[in-house]
Fold these 3 entries.
Entry 1:
Amino acid sequence: MVRTMNFDFIEYLPPLLVGAGLTIVICTASGILGSILGIVFGTAKASPSRIARWVSSLYVNFIRGVPILIILLFTYFALPLIVPSLTLDRGATAVVALSIYSGAYMAEIMRGGIQAVPKGQSEAATALGLNYFTSLIWVVMPQALKMAVPPGIGFLIALVKASSLVSVIGFVDLTRAGRIVTTINQEPLTTFLVVALLYFIISFPISLFGSWAERKLA
Amino acid sequence: MTLYFGDIFPYLPIMLEALWVSIYVTALSFVVGSFLGLFIYLARASRFRALRWFGRGYVEVIRNTPLLVQLYLIYFGLGQVGINFNPLWSVLIGMSLNNAAYTAEIFRAGINAVPNGLREAGRALGMRYDQTFRHVVLMPGIRNVLPALTNQFIILFLFSSIGSVISLDELTAVLENLNSQTLRTFEIFTIGALLYFLTSAAIAYGARAIEKVAFKW
């Protein structure tokens, strides 16, 4: 059946805005946790220890070769069967899965940042008598983090978009809110255009901030 | 609970068949999308302000909204105005349009990375504009661009799993079906994750091998 588009949308806007808020919340949480994971595993991947490099490569390469949807379904359905204490609600599952996902990408960005710091810097630190960890924290890390910021912000946009998949395990984020609204108002075109617009409003400022940071820090 | 992979092996052919669906959907929309992406890039680089704005707008809108919402718009949304696509066509169209925005940016970065001096050198050697473009800008540009294109292909392959949400029978959808049939949840999703991982690793190695052969210079 063909119907015309109806933009008299005010009554459906509040649930979509709540969904958008929850999307922002889980993205912020998993962005922070993922950055911490990324710093740890990225440092390990650029470290002189063979075991640390091997373990972090395994994590980073495996996660980067698997769809976020599979990671989500695995965390939600399969993990609790092996570790019953990890039976999490949907929101926590979403944050855990998205953190594991973004950790791998952030680690790769962080490794790039560390390896882009000129060798002379850490050599100078060694010559001054700093050991590996002091030179890492006080000399290499500050410079590496600065280089990792623009691509890290770029990944945050990818994270916001990937977070739309938590709707599949039933978490009521912006996408799921849109699905629910369409079952009530029977207007998928209008509703998903509004959903897309809300994603754009979340994501576009991040990308503008990213290109600003790139100019500023480059 | 005990792990038992033996129940899963009879279903392996079904999984591989579904993996093939994922791969050809990805390959098809990558080819179509890259072709579209070339035109989006040309629009962004054109002399006409309107075309430049269209190219920029297209890239920003696609890159700042999730593929899942784009698929919902095509699959559910267009139905509202009487345009109905089946899941396969919706995924092909959605992934092609999505891929176009990303490849357009990759082409732009690759062509811009060719230094202006090279272009001027080509002109100084007496090459015509089109010769300079083909031999001096395009070939090094393609070489610059290949690793990024491979990366984009792998990302597109991984995101083809979203097709399952609008009931396209690719690998993820089949995994979910098998999960509810066998209830071997852990085993099913482990094997599924491995299939995705091995395929994307194979794509990465294959692309590197091709680069080595094709761009020896």
Entry 2:
Amino acid sequence: MLFNSVEYLIFLPLVFILYWIVAKFNNLKIQNGLVLIASYIFYGLWDWRFLFLILASTIVDYYVGIAIHKRQSQGDKGKLFLWLSILFNVSLLGFFKYYNFFVDAFVDLILLFGYPIKSTWTLNIILPVGISFYTFQTMSYSLDIYFKRIKPTHSFLDFATFVAFFPQLVAGPIERASNLLGQITNKRTFKYEQAVEGLKLILWGLFKKMVIADGIAPIVDDIFANYDSMPASSLLLGISFFSFQVYGDFSGYSDIAIGTAKLFGIELMSNFKFPNFSRNVAEYWQRWHISLSTWFRHYLYIPLGGSRVSRLKSIRNICIIFLVSGFWHGANWTFIFWGGFHALAYIPVFLMGRNTIYKNNVVAENTLFPSLKEIWQLFATFVIVTFSRIFFRSESLTDSFVFIKRLFTEFNWEPYHHPMGYRMVDYFVLLAVFVLYEFRMRRDERNPFKFKSPVVRFIAYTLVIFCILLFYDDGVDRSFIYFQF
Amino acid sequence: MIKLFLKVTLYLILIFLSLELLVRAFHLYPDDSPRFIDEMGVEKRIPNYRGYSVTGNRRQNFSEYHINNQGFNSYREFTPSYSKKELAIIGDSYIQGFHQNYYNSIGKKIEDRTKDLEVYEYGYAGWDLADQLHLLHAYSDDFDKIDHIVIYMKYPMDLGRAIYEPNTERIKLLNSTPFKIRDNIKLLYYASQIGFLDPIKNLLTGKQDTQQSDSNNNQGNAMDSLYIGNFDKLLETYPINKSKTSLLLDKRKTSVKFLEHCKKNGIDVIDFGSKFEESKKPVTLIYDMHWNNNGRTLVAESIIEHLGL
């Protein structure tokens, strides 16, 4: 079930009403049971067959968590059980997401040594939606227990609800048990303000998805499908628009997820904090897909020594974290290159000691407009990040490099025409207004309609919905980009 | 919780009203010209109506139409007489031409390129050959006076039936309360036009895919005999004056068997497909398959050249 579907428009109010009716009985078990059933229905409507994977991951980590804790109370670290959890979850990912990639890589490697083999080992495997997200979430639970950050829950229902909580099940934010499980095990009470905040976030998320991402998707698809016959100007347009598309798509999803969770009295972590207003690549990674960056920092970068080791080892750690992060996105060399590119862009910032200087402030912190220096920094970061997305968006490495080559050689300028015949100027105006609006709200990603006057607020709601109607295209694939990861 | 529901309801009502105002202010909706079935059983538009046809979101195509006294979209009234030189073009939405300004239609292009010729465009969206031949028969007094008649035909879509029956159900449906509500609430009309309501409709009807494939219409030789049979039966019911009637079609998309059948029966065929193929510029609108300005010009030229006007 998609957040931007009619089914969800019916599903959400129904579950919301039932949820708060059930809350009146003061029985947390019934309330969590309802969320769990709703979550399984939500997921099962995609493909019920893969529900068993979620259930298996839930069962394994539930018992692993208890076992680790039990072992620790007996003086043992419980390492064996931790490895069981990691092995199980990584195996799930490995089989469903990476099996064919490794087979192909092996065949290519053998070929490199002059031994061509006809591979019959690849399988026709469907990637279960959200597998990269919920496996990371369940693993984080076992890891947190192992590192004694949390205690295991003894309620299977609560744990299953934590794993399958539908707003963030298929594309995050990847929650840590210390935040989400704690809320699930405690009584929730309906708060009007929280619900209103949730509705506002849902509306803003729908705008980002249906107007920004889906609006420009046909342009991006057209340019990437025909890049070998397009001039550099069109390729530049395509990759710049893709930057906005992927941001609108994923951050829109996250906003709807966070907004939906708020309706159920649950606060999820922020996943995006205006990455387009980052002043260097390090700041970008503090603002883009925060839940994944945090996951890797906590469970990979810091255990490897983080930046508290020698410079060389720190650089090694940075490379590892970015390459793994790239690989997490998909079983394709393009993603590994994308991760590697970001590592290369990050290392100079790290060596100059500028990787944390923008951690606690935003661009134009105390002013209305950014300084010239900041504008340059924003532009440079946007260019670097956008350039890296050529790898992210291309089907293969060959496509990426041909795209890049054409970008720097095919200088003949030709006006680009929308594949569906729409006026291109509409999209430029739309993106300009969007960027300015987001710049205005850059300090608070959770309050997209921050206006004192209720009239202005009402006008903003109306205009946002009006834009959804103006840019709606029934021919566009409405699924979210990050579902494929 | 009740406060939330009340406030959300209030906001939704106010937003709905505001959106209705915005859709009206920017004229995003098409002006629907009402339809009826006249005393001769011909389905057409209510005469003397002006409006704008709007396609797609953000007024992707915005054109003016003018329904004349005879109930057809045209820049002129139809006053056939033996003393004048006239040409009638009969067809569906392609001839009706709501996707173009009425003063830039195929007929107008023909008149601009010829001398002392009046072109009458009898176009109505959804018409097939049965409708078109019935029109010829119903208004035979008028068509007797017209010097040449061109019938636009899409093979095989226009040969789906062998008997004409007025589509009273459609007129009834369009006059039903839900449609009247939709027509009067411009926001709903606009949302319906751009496909925004399709997911709801599909959910209610249990439909999965709204896109129909044209390829389904062409089932090859096996179906040709059925379509040709329908064609013959229609001509039997509504005989045409072969000396002054031509079929306008795209030969590239028409069955060879049907073309041979026309030739054998002495039915004149005007092909615009070859001109379309030679054209370096696109001939159809990008967002739908109706002819664009270039396409209409080529169709007009095909008719002029073929008939030697």
Entry 3:
Amino acid sequence: MNPTYVRIELARQSRDIGNLMFTVGLPAVMYLLFGNMFGGGSAQAGSGNVKFYIMVSMAAYGAAVATTGIAGTAAAENMLGWGRQIALTPMKPSGFIQSKVAVALTIAAAAAGVVFIVGAATGAQADSWSVWVLSYAIAVAGSAVFALYGMGVGMSFKSETAINVAGGVLVFFAFFGNVFLPLSGTMLEIARFTPMYGFVGLARWPLLEGAVATPGATADSFWWLVANLVGWALIFMALALWAMRRTRSRQ
Amino acid sequence: METTIQQQQARGGPDQAEPALAMEAVRKTFRTAQGPLEAVAGIDLRVGAGEIVAFLGPNGAGKTTSIDMMLGLAVPTSGRVSVFGKDPREAVAAGEVSAVLQTGGLLRDLTVRETVTAIAALHGAKDRVDAVMERTDISGLAKRKVSKCSGGEQQRLKFALALLPDPRLLVLDEPTAGMDVSARHAFWDTMRADALEGRTVLFATHYLEEAQDFAERTVLIGAGKVLADGPTAKLREMTGGRVVSATLPEGRPVAAAVAELELLERVASVRLSGRRVHVTGPDSDAAARLLLGPLGATDLEIAAPTLDAAFMELTGAAS
């Protein structure tokens, strides 16, 4: 990873004000909508309240949307031939991916940060400050997995719509990953294998320690959530590397 | 071709025996919906250190695919490519080879200076940014967005990026494609000024004129194969003759006329299609005189050499 390259890339991303506002602002708006949809927002949930639960969920989702979108720009860059230009430098594909992930994580940190600030201002509560810090850190760090996802999907399909597809599928992942609404029954059993389940489960760990919001559902083990996240990280990593190598040679 | 290599090696001295570029029986086949497509059908090529070589051929001849393999951007289906005795990827990582790619793009929303700085950082050559921008005459564009630069300016920017690692071998894939005549001359002036000093340069082009003006050696490539390889001056002689064509009169033996034309000095070839005869050679005047005078031919045309003509000449001779 190259700091100068990351700095220039960040400057470039932050020039796209419209996209940035959307990426950073939307999760907070979604938190305000969902957070007030359930009357019992201030009801107890684990070591905090329901609003905190929804805040973490939306921050995690927002961070994943940000990393998917930013990393997906790598696909558009490749289509312009930038990947070939980069391939003429000593930077390896893995270095390019790391730099992209670093940029994506910076924007994701901003998106999740806005949700947490809005949450703190509107009644999200936790028993200790460490729950806040850990939840935030996990939501941001874990979203790196979706940077790999965005890059992999974006580069696998050679069209500009690929990144929209990636964003759309992410909504599906979020729904099926138990991010938006608590799932139950068979849906929940399937959800345990989907890409966002481990991520959001870990982000909620400081609050719930594996408990599932659905009444009567069995709790998740910490290692199951980690296995889910790591497993999908490896799959997306392989996809991103494969797609990147492929786009370097002309088709 | 053999003599060329020997000359180059002799000039380079014994310590330079390692060629800048070596391709041995290199093939590249792409899988397409219509079945396999052989873009490069067995290329052997050695470029000695310090040579300036034109890679001349029409579109679809396999130039870009060959260049991709020289840079490790594509892997040959069979055969071997080495750059200064190394694997091309290693040579790229070591900054020994760099290129201006035809399809290698730029990010439109970066400024010129940001682009140079970003790539310089990856090469660990940030101290060369100013010098390289000065050399390629883009210092005045530093703050301009890439999207606002003309084609020629973008090409100079790509050239600047290629110079950042201070490469020993510089590969240029149609560096002047899409430029008008004056921009093309300006580009080559920049190139010649001092950037090429001491470097080995291989450039692809489909302009015969560019090969003539800038390369000592020309490799003519067509249908994924090397058709001719030698000093550019020699190639020009081979293909540089004008083509005189005329229709031979009815009622006279054609074979005798052809024989007479072939006897002319410095005639490279005589081809016949129906009663139309095509004479290729540097001395078009003599051929024209003979055709219009003693042979009584009509509809005389004299055409300047084109790359297409050169190709017909070479491929016609081969078959």
